[in-house]
Each structure stands twice: as structure tokens, then as C-alpha cells.
Amino acid sequence: MKKLVRNTLMLAALPLAVSAAFTGSAAAQTPNLSAEDKAEAGKLYFERCAGCHGMLRKGATGKNLEPANTAKLGTSRLEKILSYGTEGGMPNFDDILSKKQISNLAAYLQMPAEAPPEYGLKQMKADWKLVVPVKDRPTKKMNNVNIENVFSVTLRDSGEVALIDGDTKQIWGIVKTGYAVHISRVSASGRYMHVIGRDGRYDLIDMWTEKPTTVATMKSGYEARSIDTSKYKGFEDKYAIVGAYWPPHYAVLDGETLEPLKVVSTRGQTVDGEYHPEPRVASIVASHDKPEWVVNVKETGMIKLVDYSDLANLKETTINSAKFLHDGGWDSSKRYFLVAANASNKIAAVDTKTGKLAALVDTAKIPHPGRGANINHPKYGKVWATSHLGADVITFIGTDPEGNKDYAWKVVQEVKNHGANSLFVKSHPKSKNIWADAPLNPDPKLAGSVTVYTIADLANPDPKPEVIDIAAAANLGKTKGLQRVVHGEYNKDGDEIWFSVWTGNKTEPSAIVVMDDKTRKVKTVIKDKRLVTPTGKFNVYNTQHDIY
């Protein structure tokens, strides 16, 4: 089995190899599936479900899906949930999967989960590929592209990223990557784009070449979500880190070649004192003020401050917070890191200067900030915002304990979003607005729209937002899949915000709508047959400098 997976690691179809791990020689189950149907259902589970529910189905953002729970629901009820989604943030799949696929997946969920194989440093080194050695790379930029305003756009279902010139709105290059790239991160120098696929494939893209070029690639495991680079002075571009969902660990790599250097397991006790076999690395950010990464371990509820100054004697500071840790970002000072503990309906704030938990802040249901948004609130000063999967609000939390002590680490305001099931909230230091999406809402109108508030209006007792139908502006015509509008991302200058219109089906058209941030009018609609299911977008300058 391991040999089969290793031989297919660099293929875009890696999830097929992973799904084979779910088709072991277990005794026949009731309900039953043929080997072929079970393999396909395992692949679908990996691609569509494991991120929220876990490879072992023990749950996190999503519910526990072990047979003890799913068998109580039964096939018919599971099919309805898979088809129509839930109010808790699970999307409907009736416009993406066939009835047979939904039926097979419902049956599969009632069978015992089987763990994929382990994958350690030895396997990583065997599968690491240095495509272009450092000595053979350009010594100066070989193109006329304004790299600082390039957007790395995830093309979810084609296993690619599109590098789009933010000045001309033209696709500069399409690069093959892993399946469903989760995030793109930029090296401290701004030269390299680092991208991680959900299948664990990690690619390093050189943007000094004439066209964006993959110069190294490796595998962190079978499923992954998070990466970052070393940003502290003297360590620029030296190291990279990748966190895996399976096996649960993080790995430190050479920042210019991706050579695997060290692997650290995250298995262990939770904040409740219980052992967990699958504590996944949910998100990672790099400190600009210390040689340190902030590593968030989902199921344990523990935040690791990892000192990379001496890899041979690696030091970790472990901070207990709450379950289950997910995404987060820096406050405007970049001293405090705020992360969603979305099963606990809390935001954990870490003081990276002291290495201690600053606060656990209670919020509305299932906070999901992405990296969040920092604004200067007209009444409460410096605040950080999150939207929610489980509530139709945008939450503002005070983040200035020195300047506004009375408001620090408190929810100072909640305002209405146009719907629940939001994934991202976004602003920019040069913007007078804050925007939020709701792409997982089952209502097509809400899924295709965004809420935008004028920041100055937040001083009013009952501020009124504008709700903009971005999907209608894309003018894609009728599609089978919902036209979900997701992930606002600003350009470098902060005067444009880009939204993906994602149909969730690679056979149907998608688009990117560029909004003028000041007028809130459509500036450009980017349509191209190569833009296959675009989702996340990452502006080089803003990502490099943690501007959000």
C-alpha cells in the first residue's frame, strides 16, 4: 500500500491513492458497498468531508461521523444531510455529487473508518524533488511583472494555481499543484510563492523567472492545510514549515529547496486531558519579531510557539486555549495572534511577546475568520473582526490593551451579516470599508452576495450595511451549481477587492469579480476557461506583510 501511494504522490490524482487506504480488508459491513464504490466514496470523503470531520471521522469543525453516530441517523437521513447541507455551515452537495455518489457516501459513513498509512521524514525525503537547484535560478528578476501586486488564485478542482497580474488583470501563468490548494504564502523576500494542497503536496514557485516556475516540490503527508516561512531578520527565506492533517505533525523544511529537515508529531493530550490520535495542524503564522512560528493544533486546543533558531534543539512553548482551533491572524501590531476555537465558540488571543494566553473571548456560534480583519473602529479603537459559520453576524474584538484597556479582549460590537455560513471577513488599512461573504449559505441569493459596512458608520447604534449581489455582476448565466461568492482579497494599494464566484463544478464557468473599494461598483470581471473553480486569492504584498 505504501509503495502504491509513494509511486503516485506527484500526480494530481493523489486522492485516489489516499482513498485506497479506506478500502482495506475489513469484514463486510451493513450497509455494504462494492470495492469500487467504496474506493470512490473514500475519495469523495477525503476531498469533500475530511477537512471538517477528520480522516478518522472523530469530528472538529464538523460533527463526529463514526458509525456509532451515523448508524443512528440511517442512510435516508444521511442522504438528506449530504444533499441539502445544514444550518451549522455544511454546504449542500446535491448540485455537485450525483444521487449515486450521495447514496454511496451515506453508506460509507456508516462503516468503520480506517486510518491511512503513516508518513514520516524518510518518506518525505524520498518524495522530495528539487526541480531547479538554487545555483541554476535567476540572479535577478527576468520579467516586467509588478510581482508585489500579483494574486495567487487557487483553482480548486483542477489542482492548479493561477498567478494573475493585479495591474493588468491578465493571467501571468498557470502552475500545476496539489489538489485544492488551501493557502498560498509568500517568502520574506517576496520572491517565492509557497502553496499547499489539501492532498499534502507542497510546491515552491519562483516569481523571478519569465513565467512563474515550480522549482521544488515535496509531500508533507496525505492531507494538509497550512504553511509559512521564516520571517525574522537574519532568517529570511531560510526555513519553511508545513503542518499536516494526516499524519498529524508539522515539518520544517529548507526555505529555498523544500528539503525536509525535521518532523514533529502533534499527537497527544487535549486541553481536557484526553488522548487524541489525530490532532491536526490547523494554521500557522510566522512572527516578524522573533525566530518563531505560531502553530495551532486543532483537536488538542493547544497553541505551539515553535522557536526555529536552533533546529537541533528545537524549543516549543505550549499554550492551552480551547477546542477546536482553526484559522486566525495577527492584530494590527502583530504582537497578538487571534485564532478561532470554533467548537467552543471562542477566539483565543496569544501574546507572542510574553508567550502567554492573553484571553479567551466568547463569541457567536462557530467563528470562522480566515485571517480576520483589522480596523480602527470609530468608537473602540483598534479591533479585529471575525465572521461566523453558525451565526449571521460580524464580531469586533478590542485588541489594544495599552491604548484601550477597557475594551481589550472583549466583544465590543456585533453587526449583521447578510447571512450565516460565512468564511471570510476582509478589510485593508487604506480602506474605509469592511466586507464579509456567506458562500456556504444554502440560499443562492445569500451565497452569491456580500455585506459591506462603512467603518465610520459603525459608531452608529444601528449601522446599516450594503448587500451586493456579486454573483449577478459576474453574469455567468444559469449554472447547475450555486454561484458561491468567496474570499475577498485586496490588491496592494487597498483600492480594489477581488471576489471569486465559485460554482463548485469544474465543468461550469466561474469568474473573479474585481470591485472598486471606494465606489463599491464592479471594476472588472475576469473570465477565462482556465479559471477552473477559483476560490482563495492571495495578494503577494499583503500576504508577505500580513496585511488584513
UniProtKB/TrEMBL annotation:
<keyword id="KW-0349">Heme</keyword>
<dbReference type="InterPro" id="IPR003143">
    <property type="entry name" value="Cyt_cd1_C_sf"/>
</dbReference>
<dbReference type="Pfam" id="PF02239">
    <property type="entry name" value="Cytochrom_D1"/>
</dbReference>
<dbReference type="InterPro" id="IPR011048">
    <property type="entry name" value="Haem_d1_sf"/>
</dbReference>
<dbReference type="InterPro" id="IPR009056">
    <property type="entry name" value="Cyt_c-like_dom"/>
</dbReference>
<keyword id="KW-0408">Iron</keyword>
<dbReference type="GO" id="GO:0009055">
    <property type="term" value="F:electron transfer activity"/>
</dbReference>
<keyword id="KW-0479">Metal-binding</keyword>
<protein>
    <submittedName>
        <fullName>C-type cytochrome</fullName>
    </submittedName>
</protein>
<dbReference type="GO" id="GO:0020037">
    <property type="term" value="F:heme binding"/>
</dbReference>
<dbReference type="GO" id="GO:0046872">
    <property type="term" value="F:metal ion binding"/>
</dbReference>
<dbReference type="Pfam" id="PF13442">
    <property type="entry name" value="Cytochrome_CBB3"/>
</dbReference>
<dbReference type="InterPro" id="IPR036909">
    <property type="entry name" value="Cyt_c-like_dom_sf"/>
</dbReference>
<feature type="signal peptide">
    <location>
        <begin position="1"/>
        <end position="28"/>
    </location>
</feature>
<feature type="domain" description="Cytochrome c">
    <location>
        <begin position="37"/>
        <end position="113"/>
    </location>
</feature>
<keyword id="KW-0732">Signal</keyword>
